[in-house]
Structures are given as C-alpha cells and as structure tokens.
Amino acid sequence: MKNNDLLKKHLKNITYPLHEWLEEFYLFEKIKKNNLSEEEYIFLLKKLYIFFNITESIIKKHKNEFEKNKLEDIEQRLQKTKWLVEDLNYLNLDIDNLNIKESIEFKTLNSFSSIVGALYVLEGSTMGGMQIVKMIERNFGNNLPNRYYQSYKQDTMNKWLSFSKWLDEVKLDKYEVTLGATETFIILKKHIES
Ligand code: HEM
Description:
Blueprint lengths: L6 H17 L2 H8 L4 H23 L2 H6 L11 H11 L21 H29 L6 H4 L5 H14 L4 H20 L1
Helix pairs in contact: 1-9, 3-5, 3-6, 6-8, 6-9
The structure holds protoporphyrin IX containing FE.
Protoporphyrin IX containing FE binds next to helix 1, helix 2 and helix 6.
C-alpha cells in the first residue's frame, strides 16, 4: 500500500482482483452473454436478498457513527434489501415463505472502519447495477422486476461520487477498511456459489 494513496483509489486497487473473481460467477457470466433463464434470475435475487439483508443490518447498527462522521444520507444508502424485497414480492415471492436457512458470518466487521469497507462494496455494486440493468432488459425485456439493479436511478452516479469523496475525507483505519471490504467481496462470492 502506498501511504499517500487516497482511500477510494486504494480500495479499488486492492479489491480489483476480487471484483474480477466475483464477476466470474457463472450467473454474472450468463447475464453478460444474454442467456440467463428466468429461474436463474430469481435464484440470484434470492441470494442477493439474503446477503444484503444480513450485511445491511450489521451496517445499520453504526448509523449514528456514519452521521457523526458526516455521511448524512446513510439511511438512504441502506435500501438495497428493501428494493430486493420489492422485486421478490412483484414475483409473488413472500420473504416470510422463502424458507431461507442460509446464514452468513463475517469475522472482521467489528469496527466502524471495517463497516465502511463493507459499505464500499455495497455502494460499488450500484456501478455494476447500471450495466446489469441494461443487460437484463436486453435479456428479458420488461418482464422481470429490476428495482434493485436500478439502485438510485438517475442519481446513481452522483451518489457514487459523493460516497467516494466522503471516503477520501473521513478519518479511518486504512487496514481495517481494507479488511472489511475484502471480506465482504469474499463472503458474497462464497454465498452466491453455495
Ligand atoms: C456482472 C456483474 C458486475 C458488473 C458487470 C460490474 C461492473 C462494474 C463496473 C463497470 C464498475 C465501475 C468501474 C469503474 O468505474 O472503474 C464497477 C464498480 C464496482 N463494482 Fe461491480 N460489477 C458487477 C458486479 C458487482 C457486484 C455483485 C459487486 C458487489 C456486491 C460489485 C462491486 C463493485 C465495487 C465495489 C465497485 C467500485 C470500484 C471502485 O472503487 O471504483 N460489482 N462494477
């Protein structure tokens, strides 16, 4: 790690190979190749729901610390589980009846800095969402719900830029942020492949 790297750039550099590894997941490959089935799309929505539900609820516990550190729109940034529920409900899938037994356990998300690392991954996923939403429309037309992938809609890029700027301004432990971001990528990859 170069000591004078700003945090956002540092996180991107460090997690770049993990992002590549995540994108190799066969269902992401199928989305890109335009041959995902409807069942596979729904399977992925359920997997993402489980992941975001658990991860966002861990992050939510630190809401006050985010506000104290001037990320005032933290609550708005924790709506991805809600969007996934909207998509699943649209498909008549009731969360209470999904019969979800899977659980996810993080080992490093135990400080504000490591939690910020996790939020970096969740917020960054909106960048992928902007591409995926186009691929899904190509794949399925308007037949399947994509609220989650639309994230902040026309505000998505602005939200990402303001989060990136905040990362470079807030005082954090660089090692712990890195650990949190890294573990979040790895846990997600393991979870969607299980
Ligand atoms: C097919 C799946 C995906 C595609 C095509 C994709 C694509 C992209 C693209 C185009 C960017 C912008 C890169 C840049 O500005 O240089 C990006 C950034 C990012 N994506 Fe993905 N993505 C995918 C899935 C995911 C998922 C599932 C996650 C995590 C949950 C994720 C996390 C991130 C992060 C953290 C960044 C920010 C990198 C930075 O610091 O600039 N991506 N992705």
